[in-house]
Structures are given as C-alpha cells and as structure tokens.
Amino acid sequence: MRLLVIGGTAFVGRAIVADALARGHKVTTFNRGLTGQDADGVEALRGDRSTDAGLRELTGRSFDAVIDPGGLVPAHVLRTARAELAPFYAFVSTTAVYRSWTTAGTDESAPTWPGVPDEDGDPDLARLGVRKRGCELAVEQTFGPDAAVIARAGMIVGPHDNVGQLPWWLTRIAQGGRVLAPGDPDRGLQLIDVRDLSAFVLDQVEARAGGIHNVVPDEPNTTMGHLVDDCAQATGSTAEAVWVDEGFLFSQGVQPWAELPLWIPDGPATAGFWAVSGASAKAAGLRTRPVAESVRDTWEWLRSGGEVRLTPGAAPFGIAGEKEQQVLTAWDARSVV
C-alpha cells in the first residue's frame, strides 16, 4: 500500500512508520522537519498543514490511506482530510475525549467533549480532550464511518516515549534508595505499548476497516506495584518502594500525575479511569504484549542513549528529589508516632 503518514518521526508516528516499512508498504512522511529524523526508506516531504499553502508538496499526490498519528488542532486535521489525498483515513485520538470517568467500562458510545471540527489555533494540551474530539469530527464528517478508523489510545508506553511517565519511574528506580510510591500498590493500570497501538492501526488500514475503538487492554493489565517491580527488575536496582497513603501525600502537597506519574487518586470521579472498555479493539484484533516487555524495552532504549523529547507545551514529570526525601522523612516520623 502507498501510505501517507503525517509527522512520522516521534513516538506513535515513528512506530507506525517502522511497522509499515517492515510490512513492505511504500511510506511517504509529511512534516515540518522539526521533531526528529525521517526513517530510512521513506519518501520525506516537508510542509505545514496549518495553512493551505503548507500542503503544496502534496498537490496532485494520491495514496491508499492517510495515517494521522498526532493531530492536535482540528482545523489542521480538517484541512488534511479535505485535501482528497486518499480514500481512507486513520486518526490516532485519545480516551481523554470522554467527559466522565465515574464508572468502569466506558465504551465508544459514552458522552464526549463537544469538539469543533474547524477550530484553529496553536496546540493546547490543557484542552486535549476537546481538541482531539474536534479532530475526530473533522475526519468523521469528511470520510464518514466506513472510510475512517479512529483509534482512541489510552496511556501509551514504550521505546521513544515523548510523554515521559514510564521513563521517569525507570530513571528514578535505577537511582536506588527509598522511592516514594503512591497509595495502593494493587491499583490497576491500563497501559498500551506504542508498537501494539501501531500494529492495530495498520491492521485496520490494511483491511480498510472503519470504526471507532478504544485502543486499550480490555482490563487492567498491570498494577502500580507490579510496574514498580518491573522497573526494578529491568534496571537491576535494589530500590525500596515506600507506599504512602494518598491522604498523607495530599497533606504534603504532592501532586498526582505530575509529581508521581501514573498516580490517579481513588475516588468517585476517577473510578473508571483505568478501567476503560477495550472490547471493541479486542474484537477487531488488538494484541497486547506483557507490560514487563514494554518496561524492559523502554529501559534498553534509555540505556542506549534514548532521551524523552516532550511534546511541545508538555511539562516534565516527576517530584524533585529534595521534596521526595522531605515527604519520606515526614512519613517515617508519622509512622513512629
């Protein structure tokens, strides 16, 4: 197949390009040349889809499918979708399009944020769910349900990570010592390896199978405790995880997610955050590898010189070392009392 991949040099796009080339497809990438190197074996075109003129390099070109792994601005996606470049469009979205996480089993019929398909402006990660829903609508309204696949990914991990949550845990645990760990180690997580996400998208493209899918394991596939253990095993660290009560963490001003990555506090508003339904993707052929493999491969990438290059506008993750030690000291004092 002749595939046009928008971007194609960072994390999800990079994995899709690598897999597509391995499958024998002819791949053209279209990007600004700012994020990373184009893979060997692709036809690399330069442009910027934020304007009509920016698509000039694609004029007169045709492909079997367009794959859009990173669109964040609805108007940019709409411009690409309307360019009549291919009869099929694949868009990688996010489960953040859903308005509520109050119940387990959120599926593709759940209420979403009210996106606007022609909304323009700079990328805005603070409005990720709204913006991604707008991008979905741009694709849906242009291609219809049968000629487009929308992959709503959950928390993506794996080599060449540009989010930084799993790399932070690996790096911190590799340093050793006592490591601040949040709440219940048995709390379930749903993590999807970037290579499994990419394989699923390409499978749908090859089959020209339209639809909307939550691309997540159909149930939690690890726990916070197992993830920390996997990090220790991958790095060979003897670090000691100190599991601290959530209420105490709040009392010390520790921020969920930002300072202790992947920590979503228990509560009615987040009961379904790590329990999204992946039944549709599973039925469509999603295959997922063990989380321990993702952890190991991510560590090998980091050890070989890999570096997290955050998406523009994203803040780095992780608690400062001094603050971590202050919280641990306070926890120890409380335990003694």
TrEMBL record:
<dbReference type="GO" id="GO:0005737">
    <property type="term" value="C:cytoplasm"/>
</dbReference>
<dbReference type="InterPro" id="IPR001509">
    <property type="entry name" value="Epimerase_deHydtase"/>
</dbReference>
<feature type="domain" description="NAD-dependent epimerase/dehydratase">
    <location>
        <begin position="4"/>
        <end position="73"/>
    </location>
</feature>
<dbReference type="InterPro" id="IPR051783">
    <property type="entry name" value="NAD(P)-dependent_oxidoreduct"/>
</dbReference>
<dbReference type="InterPro" id="IPR036291">
    <property type="entry name" value="NAD(P)-bd_dom_sf"/>
</dbReference>
<protein>
    <submittedName>
        <fullName>Nucleoside-diphosphate-sugar epimerase</fullName>
    </submittedName>
</protein>
<dbReference type="GO" id="GO:0004029">
    <property type="term" value="F:aldehyde dehydrogenase (NAD+) activity"/>
</dbReference>
<dbReference type="Pfam" id="PF01370">
    <property type="entry name" value="Epimerase"/>
</dbReference>
